[in-house]
Amino acid sequence: MFGFGFLEMPRPFNTQYRCYSVSMLPGQERLDVEKGGKIIMPPSALDQLTRLNIVYPMLFKLTNPREGRITHCGVLEFVADEGKIYLPYWMMQNLFLDEGDLLNIESASLPVATFSKFQPQSEDFLDISNPKAVLENALRNFACLTTGDVVAITYNEKVYELRVLETKPGNAVSIIECDMNVEFAPPVGYSEPKKIVKENQEEHMDTIEPITYEPEDQGFVAFAGQGIRLDGKVRKVKEDEPPLIKASYKRGVPDYDYQFGSLKFIRAPKKDDDKKKESAETSTFEAFSGAGKSLRQAKTV
Hints:
The protein has 6 helices and 14 strands. The protein has helices spanning about 30-35, 45-50, 90-95, 130-140, 200-205, 270-300, and strands at about 15-20, 40, 60-65, 70-75, 85, 100-110, 115-120, 145, 150-155, 160-170, 170-175, 180-185, 205-210, 265.
């Protein structure tokens, strides 16, 4: 603040650096940089940003002047060599950059995100049981999102790429300390499974005779000969009809012709003797009912 009472307006930070991937950074391997959306800048950049009264958090607009590609990022550390900056590899791919290319860096102020939509670039992303929780944990290493970027996240030692399809309230948003709704689009190359058209339910509710599941004759069958009545009468057998001999019915015989989606019930058909017995019982019941009715009438008289 000046002595006259006027506030000092923040001045933009705008400069160019030679960019390199994180793998070119001297010292130990920095996997934490590859897993996020922040860059490493030289110490002189911090001095310049401090003198320019930059608004926090520090966010930057990266521009490749040769290809016209733009993205946004945050800063992780100021430990790079002078004149160089180090970027995650996925960010260099988005900007179409090669090792040592010139990159323009400009300070930016972005709105806080309220909504974002992602599209996985592989169907393998569907194998994750809780993708929103995985994405939320991965985005903690990011400072901002830009529509059209393909970001890379790591889960279970596997890298998944996600394209940012939409961000609100702008094409570039800050995701630091924000409440953001997330949606997923179908992965690239994914097709919905075809629905099987179900046929008429009655066609699947077939009644099958138990004899269908009886096993065929195999080897010796007990009591396969002809029987003789004790009263000496000859059993009536049609001459042209060969005797039907089948092995005993066994439970648990699978239906090898089963079709998925069908439902079949095994019902034993009623024999003629059973039908005659039911009709006889019905007539007997009606006779007793009529006799009881006439008896009650006689007592009343």
